[in-house]
Write a structure and sequence with these properties.
By secondary structure, the chain is an alpha+beta fold. Helices cover about 20% and strands about 35% of the residues. A hairpin with a 2-residue loop joins strand 16 and strand 17.
Length: about 300
């Protein structure tokens, strides 16, 4: 397999994504060389292609929810930021492989899946069957705080050599495409937030990066894949990473401002054009990355992934 040189400072998820992508491309080459499998055309509206940035969640309705007054989407975002910052002040003691550690009280899991893998707009069942095995061998979930987050230890939850403090949310109302609030009738509310679409999102630098654990700058990693080149055009033209449609759903106890449960789904669509990979010349490919975080992580997950017990 070709060597991939990783740029220093690249996020772990970034590296994982491109090891997956490279492995899938090489699998494609092998299949083409040794067989001629049947392929299925995928309709354009089902191929995961980027579309107009539209809300996937219900519209906001002004009112009082769980004793909190929300008159605008701005109010929802301000309250979310307040809740986020407060929850990242809460810590708890854990045992990690027998050693006492102080981490965030609220820890979450992570999962990544690849969907709608297409070569020249076509789905190949043999390649699709390889995806779970490739993912299972490369992606290992970690334990983190509320996203964006780079760590479970509050003292280490920073980026850019400490320049970005992930213990505070920097989300603004201008970052949000849609938001809503639901009163659960038990002293809790559920907030949903859908950030605006972004091409090539950067951590804490744009709408997606201030809400999700985004992949960051990928151009250097793409350039370092020795078996990959482009028949024409630049990397920016031929390797488009579109963050669009992801939603966070957060359940909050309004008396304490503690997050009871939360689910974040980040949706990423990648289009590759004019790609040369070994015997494949000037081909187009696309795939969808679905990255999720669930809070709180289960006891089994903590134990299995990092040897952590509550």
């Amino acid at each position: 397999m070709a060597k991939v040189k990783a740029k220093s400072g690249l996020a772990k998820a970034n590296k994982v994504l491109f090891f997956i992508f490279l492995a899938l491309l090489i699998a494609t080459v092998v299949i083409i060389i040794f067989s001629k499998p049947k392929v299925a055309e995928v309709p354009a509206d089902a191929a995961g292609a980027a579309t107009e940035d539209v809300a996937k969640i219900d519209e906001f309705v002004a009112g009082t929810y769980g004793g909190k007054d929300f008159q605008s989407v701005d109010d929802v975002v301000k309250y979310y930021v307040e809740v986020f910052d407060y929850n990242k002040t809460l810590t708890a003691n854990y045992k990690e492989n027998g050693e006492t550690k102080t981490y965030y009280k609220l820890l979450g899991d992570e999962n990544l899946s690849v969907e709608n893998l297409l070569i020249e707009g076509k789905s190949n069942s043999m390649i699709n069957n390889l995806v779970p095995g490739i993912l299972g061998g490369i992606f290992k979930g970690n334990v983190k705080g509320l996203p964006p987050s780079d760590n479970r230890d509050p003292n280490l939850d920073t980026r850019d050599d400490g320049k970005i403090d992930e213990r505070h949310s920097h989300l603004t109302a201008d970052d949000v495409l849609a938001a809503n609030v639901k009163d659960n009738g038990d002293g809790t509310i559920t907030i949903q937030i859908q950030p605006k679409a972004v091409i090539l999102s950067m951590p804490d630098a744009d709408a997606q990066g201030r809400f999700f654990n985004v992949l960051g700058d990928i151009s250097g990693t793409v350039e370092s894949i020795s078996v990959l080149s482009f028949a024409s055009g630049t990397i920016d033209e031929n390797f488009v990473v579109n963050y669009q449609g992801g939603v966070g759903t957060i359940k909050i106890d309004t008396k304490t401002n503690e997050v009871i449960e939360a689910d974040y789904e980040m949706d990423v669509h990648i289009d590759v054009k004019h790609a040369n990979v070994a015997v494949i010349k000037d081909k187009n490919a696309s795939l969808d990355i679905i990255y999720t975080n669930h809070f709180p992580a289960s006891d089994d997950y903590l134990k299995e992934m990092k040897g952590i017990t509550r």
